[in-house]
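Let us practice reading a record.
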Amino acid sequence: MTPILTAQQMKEVDRRTVKLGIPSLILMENAGLRAVDAMAAQFGPLSGQRIVVVCGKGNNGGDGLVIARQLFTRFQPKALHVVLLHDQADLSPDASANLLMLEAAGCPSSREFPIDVTIVVDAILGTGLNGKAEGPALESIRHINNSYSTAKVLSVDIPSGLPSDTGCPSGEYVRADLTVTFTAPKPAHVLGPACYLMGQLVVSPIGSPNHLVTSEFSLVSSAAIQKLFSPRQKDSNKGIYGHVLAAAGSRGRTGAAVMCGMAVLRSGAGLVTVATAASALPLIAGYMPELMTEPLPETPAGELSETASDRLLQLAKTKTILAIGPGLGTDRETVALVHRLFHEVDLPMVVDADALTALSSGEWQGDNTRLRVLTPHPGEMSRLTGRSVADVQANRHQVACAFARERNVVLVLKGDRTLIAFPDGRVWVNPTGSPAMATGGTGDILTGLIAGLIAQHPKDQELAIAAAVYLHGLSGELGAAEMTEQAFTATDLIRFLPHAIRHVQNGK
């Protein structure tokens, strides 16, 4: 996983790096070099460009001064203007030192903005902003957005005006085409909606030792899950790859059970048994011949009766994991069944859909001995917590982290940039996904993927959860690219799953 650092954590990494013997001026020099390299790759050739570098008074402005010197000495652009928003006496020590180096190299600076510009370097505020931009910084942000609307914009660390520790913009900000940040991404780089305001994001190392870059908040990456998709042993058999028990479906809701079961098998699990209301069984069995089924006692409404729990507990003794919820229904007896299974089944369990609604109606608590993975969408999370959907969405990270700690479960909070929260306080954010997935049934597919991958990798349960969420989103991206966002349906996730797995295997 890729650590995600808050502004304070990044400041501490820099401090400790300096203490180890790497001067802060060297870190600033490296940052400027990496930014120029990214600029040349994205906007080059630079020699024919008319560039303005806008520098604030802090270390972000110091990075800008390094960038200006590198541009001046290495690329000799057609025009280069360095705009200082503050007097030298107000600059940070490292920024002041770099201003002297810029002047020594023969490049002047001024307080005036040029008129004709093709590239803007935004080095105004960086990650230290608390609240909204104001004063000269705000005036400069407005000038860049309004007067240089046709120019390409590189923001150093983060578009000025955006707070680095949240995904929610609070004021005006620079509209960037390219953002180069250093050492590690910050929360705003990976959480929506701010993550969509960066243009292309480049994360560059500048010399801090890897052992200093740690965080409880991390970004799921293809590289982190790749090992789960290594070639299988030659003498494989279905028993090696787990047997999933899916308690799902009811009369009139058979599709959810089928999609869950299909996803289990497509993920690579050896076997799946769909346990469902007896009257729903013929439809489920007819969808996919590979699905094994188990008829269970039902209520008059065609949902699982409380008496079905005895049979499910017996079935669970020979299975690897239980997935429960898709299409299950919310009959009073079904709710009672969910609570009993949640507390008595010794297997790992993935809890989704109607099973989440059942849990929201009573008292329950996870424990350290049995894995419980809950996969709510924002509406289900609202019911589980008693908070409004708007509140859940505005505070996704905090809500997910607190809930996983308090209830001792793994929480997969679905939505844009799905979060995976663990009881020990760690939170992973998933970068894949598409608006095309805003259609019925995609959650049932995710339930099956999580259960199927845990069944195959019982010793890597956390990675299996992350891999399921990552592949789920990537399948959506690949499918939307081919089919359009509008025409995409949930079962298309299964169609594009092999392509997503291949992407991971190939390190994409």
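A brief commentary: The chain has 18 helices and 17 strands.
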